[in-house]
Every structure is written in structure tokens, then in C-alpha cells.
Amino acid sequence: MSNNVKAFGTEAADKPLEQITIERREPTAQDVEIDILYCGVCHSDLHTAKNDWGGTVYPAVPGHEIVGKVTKVGSDVKKVKVGDYAAVGCMVDSCQTCDSCKQDLEQYCLNGFTGTYNGKDKHLGGRTFGGYSEKIVVDENFVLKVPKNLDLAAAAPLLCAGVTTWSPLRHWKVGKDSKVAVVGLGGLGHMAIKLAKGLGAEVTLFSRSPNKEEDAKKLGTDKFVISTDKEQMKAVKGKFDLIIDTVPYEHDLNPYISTLTINGTLVLVGFIGELDSMLQTPPMIMGRRSVAGSVIGGIKETQELLDFCGEHNIVSEIEKIDMQDINEAYERMLNSDVRYRFVIDMKSLKNN
């Protein structure tokens, strides 16, 4: 059985998002139904809607930073109950049996995780639909609990932007003695700063824009470095244990590698694609420095993030919008005109 619900989606790469009707399944014994209150807007949403990465199946309904209230639970559900606030991130399923899944690394499922949108829907067939909708039905294994003290709208981006930067911070064991740099101040970058600072690290922002220094300091950075200034870059040579590079487009990594300590790592979390600029290996070889990549986080890690944010009262800096403003929001995102994450108030869809 299934139910029709209102959503915002697009029928083709060159068409705007508009209101459509989609199907949601009736909850099975292990399912949770969530009435969506807020949904963050991620660059991945835009890329999928526009088929920038290829593979989008239409109609497409984006949205994987979902916060809402539980309205139904299956008979076997133990994690949450009706009335609880709950969240859904970038995944709604994985094989649960491969080595990655057994390590709570579902994001690296060897059989491929099921994305919250544009994934294979094993229940209804076709593709999964995301959080630009009235409600969602998810296996309880992929449902997260939201700390009661957090602002629900501002917590939504933690489900993607937050965990995308949290995962490398935890993997590379960032703590009070760590020196962390962040490349780029946007949806991902501002979360990397807040979380690294929350973990006790000394935090530096690399930026090409001097006018971002004031915002960077307000977010918690200790130092600000203009990445195109050779003298400033020389002054931080060999300084950082970890660099989190959040820039979503191709750029030259070489200037940053020499700013790593011995055994330091630059981890890419923002750019997906080919790097045409050649990596210069001498700074890597002579300092055992690494360039790595990381994507979102597993369910256990995402819950750990939410709990940490609850304890430290960390949320995203957001601008709330109505669902009907999503196309304008996409245009503004392309122009970097958001500080630092749009979040959709889903009342605007339900009341329409």
C-alpha cells in the first residue's frame, strides 16, 4: 500500500522545480513515518536536479537534510516513538552485511547505499524521493534522534554539511592539540570551523576573499590566511595536522600541501570530479603528507555528531525559505549568495 503526498520536484534538467504528487509507502514493521518540518538545501540537490553528475532519473525530488516529527512507527521499531523529533540524512538503506556496513560505515557500502533521493526504491520500485515533501517513510536503522535543545531548522544541515566535515575530523582524531585549516567558507566550511573548534582545535581559514575574515572570526577561527598571498602562505608552512578542503569546484591543491605538518593530511570533501592540475609530489614525499577524500558519515557517526552538537549547542547558520522559493534559492546558491545554508520551512508546502 502507498499514499500520495505533496512534494516539489522537477521533470527534466532544464525545467524548474514545481509542486508534484509522489507516493510514500505505508510503514512496514521496521519503518518510521516522519512528518517533515524542515529540509536543508544542499549543493547536491541542485546538481541532481540539473543532472550535473549524470544519472538523474526524473521526476526527481531532492532533499537529504530532513528534520521532522514521528507520526507512525512499525510494530518492531524501538529507536523512536510517535511524537519524537527525528531526522534523516543522505541514506535510507544499505546492504547491512558487507565489511563496510559491519563497521558502521554505510556510506562506503560495498554494494552501494540507497540515497535518500534518486536511489533505487526497493519497496515501490523506481527511484527514491527526498525531503522536499510533506513526509517520508524510512527504515528505523536510518532514522536519527535529534537533541531536544537544538533549533530544529538550524539542525537540518547537520545531516549532510555537518557530518561531511565531522567524519574527517573524527577519522583523523582531531582534538585539543590539533591544528586544523579549512579551505572555503560556505555551507561545509562554516560547519568545519564550528565543529573543529568544538573539538578544541586551533582553527585557521584559507580564503581568497579578505572580506570573509570578519565572518570567519565570528564563527570561531583563530587565524585567517589569504591563500593567494605568498607571504601569508609561507608563514604557515608545515603548520597543519589536517586541512579540510570544502571547495566544490576544481582548484589547485599544491599551495596547501606544503602547509601540512609531517604526516599531515589534506582531505577533499567538496569537489567531485577530475583534477587537471598535477599534484607536485616532492612536498608529499619529503613530508609523508597525504591527499585524501571523504564522504558524509555512517549512521552511528551521524548520531554521534547530533549528540555532540546537542552537548555544545552547535547548529548551522541558516536562512529559512518557503518551498515555493526553491528555484530562486538555487540561483542564489550558484552565486554564493547564502550565509550559509538555506533551509525550507515545509509549512509552506503543506499549507499551499
Polypeptide structure, described:
The protein is of the alpha/beta class and 352 residues long. It has two domains: 194 residues, Quinone Oxidoreductase, Chain A, domain 1 (Alpha-Beta Complex), CATH 3.90.180.10; 132 residues, 3-Layer(aba) Sandwich (Rossmann fold). It is 25% helix and 27% strand. Strands 3, 4, 5, 8, 9, 16 and 17 form a seven-stranded mixed β-sheet that branches. Strands 12-11-10-13-14-15 form a six-stranded parallel β-sheet. Helix 8 links the parallel strand 13 and strand 14. Helix 4 crosses helix 5. The longest helix has 14 residues. The mean pLDDT is 96.
CATH architecture of the largest domain: Alpha-Beta Complex
The DSSP helix count reads 12
Strand content: 25-35%
Question: SS-based structural class?
Answer: alpha/beta
Fraction of residues in helix: 10-25%
What's the total number of strands? 17
| Radius of gyration of CA atoms, rounded to a whole number | 20 Å
What sequence of helices (H) and strands (E) makes up the elements?
Answer: EEEHEEEHEEEHHEHEHEHEHEHEHEHEH
Chain-wise SSE layout:
Blueprint lengths: L1 E8 L8 E8 L5 E10 L2 H7 L16 E8 L11 E4 L2 E3 L5 H4 L11 E2 L19 E5 L4 E2 L6 H4 L5 H11 L7 E5 L3 H12 L3 E6 L5 H7 L3 E4 L3 H6 L4 E6 L8 H4 L2 E9 L12 H5 L4 E4 L5 H14 L5 E5 L3 H9 L6 E5 L1 H4 L2
Parallel strand pairs: 10-11, 10-13, 11-12, 13-14, 14-15, 16-17
Antiparallel strand pairs: 1-2, 3-4, 3-8, 3-17, 4-5, 5-9, 6-7
Helix pairs in contact: 4-5
Using brief descriptors, characterize the structure shown:
single chain, alpha/beta, Rossmann fold, six-stranded parallel sheet, 17 strands, 25% helix, globular
